[in-house]
Amino acid sequence: xxxxxxxxxxxxxxxxxxxxxxxxxxxxxxxxxxxxxxxxxxxxxxxxxxxxxxxxxxxxxxxxxxxxxxxxxxxxxxxxxxxxxxxxxxxxxxxxxxxxxxxxxxxxxxxxxxxxxxxxxxxxxxxxxxxxxxxxxxxxxxxxxxxxxxxxxxxx
Length: 156
What we know:
CATH topology: Bifunctional nuclease domain
CATH superfamily: Bifunctional nuclease domain
CATH architecture: Roll
Distance between the termini: 12 Å
Radius of gyration: 16 Å
Number of domains: 1
Shape: globular
Structural class: alpha+beta
């Protein structure tokens, strides 16, 4: 999947990172915190802060230790919480590190690492209730399905 943009949820006013599969068939919204949304937005806009931010620091540490972020994997969705890991490669060794999806996405942007989402996560996300109101859930789902890249606050 690829990050298609960043926008504000019209219902909750929380930032959402929009992931879309390569074919453009499936969309996965991931609600993130303001700090993580800012980290994603800075990278989308190619803004280089005067000093390294947290995700820049992690990228720099990986490089200094000779590790490469091979991929980000969002592998589970439980109780409305997404779970992800980083797959690092150092020499011939592979290491998996548990990470919040929002941090994984910000780091993937900085390292140009591919983003994978397990199909069951997409299935669970599309069938789970994001909002307690059924009407809000249906309205949000219709809105997400009709998204056009020009509607996004920050586009990739």
